[in-house]
């Protein structure tokens, strides 16, 4: 009797484990695969597994940067009759380039129906201006009859690389740049006191004639400050005001280099110090954001979740 009970228990436990390990039967992007390397401006095949979701009427696909916090949908026209797809110009994709993310306004790059080949998939153009890690979001609209519609979604992160070579780097700022008493601080988020953290727009001119955003270190950009007593270059790609003076900011990407002379004349303010960053491997889907002196800052590379301590260091 004991052996029969034990056998029954083992069988049911094994069945439970098998069910957990089995497919989730949820809506899922099948192609392109997670971490695929895609080329800017090229068309890639997209395919979804509908899982157990019945009644799907259309699937909308969106591109947006990996570090974006919010995607705000801009309405687009419905699919043309019979085609099952509606292509939207990819140059409308990039609305903002910053290492701190924020809201991105986007239209669907592809709207696909059951008439497409494959159903609810098709050819999706990678944005011409894209570079570095990108998120591909697929949203399926499910009809519920008189109860309206509901949506399910899935997304993957892919890496986008342009085929063209980088020819030059430029700062989209005043040159030289003055921060503080000459008024430019309002342009860069009130960069008017020591301790403030900000970023500067950096772009790259490529051999194919396309200008691509290079502000984020995830595109391969590195920053170097000639005087960290004036401005400190953080590993996240952000810059922190430390004190008054002059310095030169140098950025490097793909063997190219650009420099910007900066003069800082700011009033006294409270300086904040980064005391500790503790890695936590639990969050693997995207880099965390660190709250630093009221600013949202991406964490250094390799840190998936972090605890941040901020301490006031008096007036500078």
Task: Report on this structure.
The protein is mostly beta strands and 316 residues long. The protein folds into two domains: 25-161, Immunoglobulins (Immunoglobulin-like), CATH 2.60.40.10; 166-271, Immunoglobulin-like, CATH 2.60.40.1080. The chain is built from one helix and 25 strands. The chain has one helix at 2-21, and strands at residues 28-31, 37-39, 43-49, 56-65, 70-73, 85-87, 103-106, 110-112, 122-125, 132-143, 149-161, 166-171, 177-180, 197-198, 202-206, 211-213, 222-225, 231-233, 239-241, 245-253, 256-265, 270-277, 289-292, 295-298, 308-315. A six-stranded mixed β-sheet has the order 2-11-10-4-8-6, with no helix packed on it. It has a four-stranded mixed β-sheet with strand order 13-21-20-17, with no helix packed on it. The N and C termini lie far apart (80 Å). The relative contact order is 0.14.
| Class based on secondary structure composition and strand pairing | mainly beta
Q: In the CATH hierarchy, what is the superfamily of the largest domain? A: Immunoglobulins
Number of separate domains: 2
Largest sheet: 6 strands, mixed
At a glance:
The chain is built from 1 helix and 25 strands. The chain is mostly beta strands. The termini are far apart.
Please describe the structure with a list of short key phrases separated by commas or semicolons.
mainly beta, about 325 residues, six-stranded mixed beta sheet, single chain, 2 domains, Immunoglobulin-like, about 45% strand, disordered C terminus, 25 strands
